[in-house]
Design a protein that fits this description.
Shape: elongated
Helix content: 10-25%
Structural class: alpha+beta
Number of strands: 8
Oligomer: single chain
Length: 138
């Protein structure tokens, strides 16, 4: 029984650890890294993340990619989405990446509900940003 367990465990770990990542189009004008050094890194901000104010109708957040260990000077390809429990359709900007670098990026959110300030909308709705980045580590 124990031998069967280790065989099944080995097959599971072998299949779970394989992933093919290929950079089809790196950013123009930047050097590229070696294909074996590609990394897919993903994360989320906490629903209690302290957003910073940007006027009455907007907020922003700087998101760190430090734990991804991307090579400095090689900007990863980053995508993001706004997630929450309520009214994210009242926001603009959750998928718009500003100032991307190997170390992080910025997201701005603006309320489309002009009768409310952004604080009345984002805090009770527990908005967060889910993101993933593909970049080089060497």
């Amino acid at each position: 029984k124990m031998a069967t367990f280790f065989v099944v465990l080995g097959l599971f770990l072998g299949s779970a650890s394989s992933m093919d990542i290929f950079m089809a189009e790196p950013y123009s004008g930047e050097p590229s890294g070696a294909e074996p050094c590609l990394r897919l890194c993903a994360g989320t901000t906490d629903r209690e993340t302290p957003w910073k104010r940007y006027g009455d109708k907007a907020i922003y957040l700087d998101i760190s990619l430090a734990k991804c260990h991307f090579k400095p000077g090689l900007t990863p390809i980053i995508t993001s989405v706004l997630v929450g429990i309520n009214v994210h359709w009242l926001a603009e900007g959750g998928s718009k990446i500003y100032e991307p670098t190997s170390g992080g990026f910025r997201i701005y959110l603006r309320s489309k509900d002009y009768g409310n300030t952004i604080d009345n909308v984002h805090a009770p709705s527990q908005w967060r940003i889910d993101w993933h980045a593909v970049g080089y580590t060497c």
